[in-house]
Specification:
heterodimer; A: about 475 residues; alpha/beta; Amidase signature (AS) enzymes; eleven-stranded mixed sheet; 17 helices; about 15% strand; globular; B: about 110 residues; mainly alpha; Histone, subunit A; 4 helices; about 0% strand
């Protein structure tokens, strides 16, 4: 195989090329590292490369292939990992200065599962600091550029994870999604991104942002690859008490089932003012495709949608203010040199280590939880969270999946929204409600704007019904031709 | 939502202290402006009457009511198990004597 053809493979193509001896896992890894060397100077998607570990794993897979053994599902597949997940011995910065130099002594469960399934882990991917952002401009290590339009953002917070898959700097990647951080960058970069149901995928080894919302999920080049990744990632983990032991798997097989007869809900609240007309048209076209495939399209109402963003920014920041208190310069990462007392050490380290958006969210969360304000903000937001979840539970009594836009606009320009936090937060308007409700969701490419910017369509599914969501996504993908 | 339109500089300083953050004099007014803008947006939640709505802290509790723990979203058995090696953890510490994390003196006498 030519070098170029080694770096535009899907999971299925990469694995079968290794299995059939048309290439080796080592050649795949080297070809990707060579491409990263050249292309990533401008894109800035990788923060660290784990070359040694990758090549050891690749040799192991090559030896298996040579002996003619049956290869695991991700054998030889080059994968990148968002830098909020722990990879033993590799840097884990979470895009923050406060974790500069930290190398966790253990693997996240998702990292461990990917490697056990044969994946070759290339390195750590850039992201907004502590996954707080919608443009990847909050990384302390520089922004990521959108490979499809280099003057634009890749989305965030998993901007590096989306950009790396989009630019063929890995075949698949892991990201995390707290309020849209997988689905939005997937839409901006023209790749597939999956938010599994809360509890479906272990979070052990994930640097926590908002624990009742954080989830880990894959980015891939197509829907089938996403199903393959989810098959490996999903399932109970004894190391994560919030992971569920409901039966997992069957995602790849589910793609074979036709979508005929499925009821698809279209929430009117997701098609209101502010939605880019080209995105509206592309999503409507995707719905036409589902109708042609035999689905019933039905209007549904999610009446509390407009309250999702304010609810999210109370709950996520409150949890973040608590989670991020562990970064104090005592046990890992940055410590400022001249501290006179312990509290001085905490303050100086946190001041030097955290960027402005992280400070803003810690302050907001601390304020919302402080004496006298708890009922007005935090409890109120938790009550509205119940209403938002009930909206979805009621809709899913009538339909099997919901289809909507992922974002109101296509990828915006670098610097365009950095001055106004609310403008940036409203970027999440179509993604945060699913995060709060805990349901599964994904972004699937569904065309381009007239300026050739990718458009994503969002498919939302019932709690733990990733199989139906993936089937619908596959039908949308197939209708693109 | 009392005070949502009126976070003062003193409030910002008090919250920063609670959060163990040290803000520069330039950061304080900026944070005050941003907090007021965001809290103003959050005040929209007051349009909803939620007096009869239970708060939702976790996703699991919404799914099956009391049956949720039959699905394993629960704690593992309380057994002694091997954990991360101390030397490996201490390798990442800013200052350590090999057994403990070292910090500036906590109690002055």
């Amino acid at each position: 195989m030519t070098v170029e053809s080694l770096t535009n493979l899907t999971i299925e193509e990469a694995r079968s090329a290794v299995a059939a001896g048309r290439t080796t896992a080592t050649a795949l890894a080297v070809a990707h590292y060579d491409r990263i060397e050249v292309e990533d100077k401008a894109i800035n998607s990788y923060l660290a490369l784990s070359r040694e570990r990758a090549l050891v794993q690749a040799e192991k897979i090559d030896a298996m292939a040579q002996r003619g053994e049956e290869l695991p599902p991700l054998a030889g597949v080059p994968v990148g990992i968002k830098d909020v997940l722990a990879m033993r011995g590799a840097p884990a910065t979470a895009g923050s200065l406060i974790l500069k130099g930290y190398r966790p002594p253990y693997d996240a469960t998702t990292v461990d599962r990917l490697e056990a399934a044969g994946a070759v882990l290339l390195g750590k991917l850039n992201c907004d600091e502590f996954a707080m952002g919608s443009s990847n401009e909050n990384s302390a290590y520089g922004p990521v550029r959108n490979p499809r339009a280099m003057d634009r953002v890749p989305g965030g917070s998993s901007g590096g994870s989306a950009a790396a898959v989009s630019a063929d700097l890995c075949v698949a990647s892991l990201g995390t999604d707290t309020g849209g951080s997988i689905r939005q960058p997937a839409a901006f970069c023209g790749v597939v991104g999956v938010l599994p149901t809360y509890g479906r995928v272990s979070r052990y080894g994930l640097i926590a942002f908002a624990s009742s919302l954080d989830r880990v999920g894959p980015f891939t080049k197509n829907v089938k690859d996403a199903a393959t990744m989810l098959e490996v990632l999903a399932g109970k983990d004894a190391m994560d008490a919030t992971s569920s032991d409901r039966p997992a798997g069957g995602y790849v097989d589910a793609l074979e089932k036709p979508v005929e007869g499925l009821r698809i809900g279209v929430p009117e609240e997701y098609f209101g003012e502010g939605l880019d007309p080209e995105i509206r048209a592309a999503v409507e076209k995707a719905l036409d495709g589902l109708k042609a495939a035999g689905c019933t399209i039905k209007k549904v109402s999610l009446p509390h949608t407009k309250y999702a963003v304010p609810t999210y920014y109370v709950i996520a920041t409150a949890e973040a203010s608590s989670n991020l208190s562990r970064f104090d310069g005592v046990r890992f990462g940055l410590r400022t040199a001249e501290a006179k007392s312990l509290s001085d050490l905490f303050r100086k380290t946190r001041d030097a280590g955290f960027g402005p958006e992280v400070k803003r969210r810690i302050l907001l969360g601390t304020y919302a939880l402080s004496a006298g304000y708890y009922d007005a903000y935090y409890k109120k937001a938790q009550q509205v969270r119940t209403l938002l979840t009930r909206d979805f539970l009621a809709a899913f009594n009538e339909v099997d999946a919901i289809v909507a836009p992922v974002t109101p606009t296509p990828a915006f320009k670098l610097g365009e929204k950095t001055d106004d936090p609310i403008k940036m937060y409203l970027e999440d308007i179509y993604s945060v409600a699913a995060s709060l409700a805990g349901i599964c969701g994904m972004s699937v490419p569904c065309g381009e704007t007239s300026a050739a910017l990718p458009i994503g369509v969002q498919v939302l599914g019932r709690h733990f019904d990733e199989a139906t969501m993936l089937r619908v996504a596959k039908a949308i993908e197939a209708a693109q031709g | 939502m009392s005070g949502q339109s009126g976070v003062t500089i003193e409030d910002v300083r008090r919250v920063a202290e609670l959060a163990n953050l040290e803000l520069t004099p330039e950061e304080e007014p900026r944070m005050q402006r941003d907090l007021n803008a965001i809290l103003g947006h959050i005040a929209e939640l007051n349009e909803l009457n939620t007096s009869d709505v239970p708060p939702m802290a976790q996703v699991g509790e919404m799914l099956d009511g009391n049956a949720v723990h039959t699905h394993g979203e629960t704690l593992r058995a309380d057994l002694v198990q091997p954990s991360v090696d101390r030397a490996a953890v201490m390798a990442s510490a800013p200052e350590t004597d090999g057994r403990f994390f070292k910090v500036p003196k906590v109690i002055e006498r």
